[in-house]
Amino acid sequence: MATTDSATGAHDTSNASLEERAAKLVNPASGIANDYLNHFNEILLLIENLPTLLPEMLDELLEWRPVTYREYFAKSALPGSAAALEIYEGLDDGFRRDFESIIDGINAMATASIDVIRAHRGPEGDIDPSRVSDFCENASCAIRSALNRASDLVNNGRDNPAETPQGMADRLIPCVA
Fold first, then answer.
1. Are 12 and 4 in contact (CB under 8 A)?
2. For residues 110 and 40, is the Cβ–Cβ distance under 8 A?
């Protein structure tokens, strides 16, 4: 069982069971684990930063592949991966289809972007950053927009509207003031 330090408010999870910690993997608002979106954050950051990180990150970007939610957690070593899959299978079919549709769109944009970037490789396998800079900026904006929709669905579910930036500021400012 987790305890709370009354002086700092910090949670001590050393006594928390593995099951308790694993349960936190899945967002209760949606039944989907936010950790899955890290796979897409990775490709977003690679595309977004490609013009400035060349050539170090090019091979990693070109090796990226789509992974379904089921594949991600089937291979994951995270505690709670099996529970995340079980919960995912129990989701409303329409909700799961909505989520997977957004993910399919992200995958399509990411793989198309990788194909375009690959096509810009020179004979030596290098890429002139100036030739892909505008493309990478546009592609990353489109992927980020779709990823934000997926994140909103994961963090808020279907029934809870997304928090507006003003709403978030109104909620957080009293906490730091």
1. yes
2. yes
